[in-house]
Amino acid sequence: MQPTQYVGIQDIKTLGTLLDKVAEHKGCGTSSEGGKASCGSSDGPADMAPEVWEKVKNHPCYSEEAHHHYARMHVAVAPACNIQCNYCNRKYDCANESRPGVVSEKLTPEQAAKKVFAVASTIPQMTVLGIAGPGDPLANPAKTFKTFELISQTAPDIKLCLSTNGLALPDHIDTIAAFNVDHVTITINMVDPEIGQHIYPWIYYQNKRWTGIEAARILHERQMLGLEMLTARGILCKVNSVMIPGINDQHLVEVNRAVKSRGAFLHNIMPLISAPEHGTVFGLNGQRGPSAQELKALQDACEGEMNMMRHCRQCRADAVGLLGEDRSAEFTTEKIEAMEVAYDGATRKAYQELVEQERQAKSAAKAAEQQELAQMADQSGLSLLVAVATKGQGRVNEHFGHVSEFQIYEVSSAGSKFVGHRRVDQYCQGGYGEEDALETVIRAINDCHAVLVAKIGGCPKDDLQKVGIEPVDRYAHEFIEQSVIAYFMDYLERVRSGQIEHRPRGDADIRQGAYTSVQSTSAAA
Ligand code: CLF
Ligand code: SF4
After folding, report:
1. Structure pTM?
2. What is the pLDDT of residue 400?
3. Is 175 within 8 Å of 193 (Cβ atoms)?
4. What is the spatial distance between Cα 423 and Cα 323, in angstroms, rounded to a whole number?
5. For ligand 2, atom 2, which residue shows the shortest CA distance?
6. Confidence tier at 3 by pLDDT (50, 70, 90)
7. Which residues, at least 6 apart from 348, have a Cβ–Cβ distance to it below 8 Å?
8. Mean pLDDT in the chain?
9. Cis bond upstream, residue 134 (ω within 30)
């Protein structure tokens, strides 16, 4: 039993210290180019209706730009599920919004509410509470809505969010609206039951188990109906789709069109993560996930249609923190039970105002660099991917050996934009470089021309150069996007002067194993 601990933010940290703390937290500290060709909605207030901007500006999943500054948390209050997906094993959390193979600690609504207040008091940039499992939130409506009720009474400034497979969605639209749940995610993997039958072996609907094409047809109709009903109410909808090569990869372009025409705000195409040890149908039958370039090509193909999310981290059902970090180990039930929690909305607001100032300074710095790029006399058709080592605050501030997740930027004469992230096993293992880990790092960023780092040792530097990835440490502690654009301008100059020759890069791996190992590393930190 731990001693009682009082949690109130003015008692534990000053605002300035907390701002510094943001940088220490693992996660991305990046921002991307505005416009629809971005990851999530990174448009600013001038690009959308004020009421939409209000909803997305500090939601880390609905705004790529916001995800560098604001955190979300999930509470695992919803254990049951009403369908079966072939990429899911119900020994683990719902794989629609959770990383496969992860088990969360289930909570009652009362435990969940206390946890939310404790986290909100400790992490003032936590702005969103999501319910995303470990089953389907709407297959557990009493627990889900009781949790929302308890939280909205005490902490009305926290945005409420839920993620569902959509089967029960049309039955709960009024309740969702009544609780001011402004953000709903529906996982939609198909709009054709012929394809759906290869993803969903059964559903449970109207007290009956349905299988085969009929099950997929019912699910599809309920998903479309739910989406239409939500968007008619002005509730922002994100659609998650799992990319399953050979089953729905080509078809997801059609899904994209269908959900766009029904008013979805954002489309998040996630890679299938499939390993035999997860015990799923796909894991056991050897169904592979996509490569990095396959995923990017599909996201690019859909990008002209609507906002695409590329910064999803496939969180766990009890995730806490900035996307890309996981602080759930700090908030176990045992620790929360021992805390005396005080919710301090005023101090949270003051803190978030400081975050806004920081965010605006970063945007201004990027705009200035962008202008310089636009003024380059000879506009080039070249486009590069650049990997960035960061631990937050939008800066190149991580040592190469300590990286567990690289941020990937695409840069061209049109500017820079965030296009994804790659999990890796850390190269530096307790003071020495791990050659096996370096190989996996290289495979994970093999499609990049350069990697921007705060620092890098001689050995990995040589190995990267040998495979044609340029290690760059001259932008240490600078803002990322400024640095990516500056690197690109320098690259163009070197190509023009004949100092280097531009060569296309190959494909890269999405490191499935690293998703789990990074999880345990950060949880233990
Ligand atoms: Fe959670 Fe989902 Fe809400 Fe975000 S996660 S319920 S919309 S608050 Fe975000 Fe995590 Fe990806 Fe989900 S990064 S898995 S998209
Ligand atoms: Fe698993 Fe989620 Fe699919 Fe249910 S909806 S089977 S919990 S992935």
Report:
1. 0.81
2. 94
3. no
4. 13
5. 94
6. very low
7. 9, 120, 121, 124, 157
8. 84
9. yes
Q: What percentage of residues in the chain have a pLDDT greater than 90? A: 51
Please tell me the predicted confidence (pLDDT) of residue 436.
Answer: 75
Residue 525 has what pLDDT? 20
Residue 178's pLDDT is 95
Mutation to probe ligand 2, out of 77, 88, 244 (largest number of atoms < 8 A from CB): 88
Ligand 2 centroid, distance to 507 Cα (angstroms): 30
Please state the atom number of ligand 1 nearest to the C-alpha of residue 240: 15
Q: What is the pLDDT of residues 73-97, one digit of tens each?
A: 999 999 999 999 999 987 776 766 6
Among the bound ligands, the one closest to the CA of 187: 2
Evaluate: CB of 165 within 6 angstroms of ligand 2. yes
Q: What is the pLDDT of residues 304-356, one digit of tens each?
A: 767 899 888 888 788 888 887 778 888 888 888 888 888 888 888 888 898 88
- Cβ–ligand 1 contact at 74 (below 6 Å): yes
Ligand 1 centroid to Cα of residue 438, in Å, is 30
Q: Which residue has the higher pLDDT, 382 or 173?
A: 173
Ligand 1 mutation target, pool 93, 185, 267, 316, most atoms within 8 A of CB: 185
Query: Would you say the CB of residue 185 lies under 6 angstroms from ligand 1?
Result: yes
**Nearest partner of 132 among 75, 61, 67, 71, judged by Cα:** 75
Contact (CB, 8 A) for 231 and 237: yes
CB of 241 closer than 6 A to ligand 1? no
Confidence (pLDDT) at 26: 29
Q: What is the separation of C-alpha 137 from the centre of its chain, rounded to a whole number of angstroms?
A: 19
Residue 325 Cα to ligand 2 midpoint, Å, equals: 23
Parallel, antiparallel or unpaired: strands 428-429 and 432-433 = antiparallel
- Answer yes or no: is the C-beta of 76 below 6 A from any ligand 2 atom: no
Helices (DSSP H) in 155-291: which residue ranges? Answer: 173-178, 193-196, 212-232, 252-261, 281-284
For residue 451, CA distances in Å to 387, 403, 471 come to 5, 11, 5
Which ligand ends up closest to the CA of 99?
1
Residue nearest to atom 9 of ligand 1 (CA): 61
Query: Is the CB of 273 inside a 6 Å radius of any atom of ligand 2?
Result: no
In contact, 429 and 516? CB cutoff 8 Å: no
> Ligand 1 mean position to 315 CA, how many Å?
7
Nearest protein Cα to ligand 2, atom 7: 94
What six digits make up the tokens of 120? 């909100």
What tens digit of pLDDT does each residue of 34-69 get? 333 333 444 566 667 888 888 898 899 998 888 888
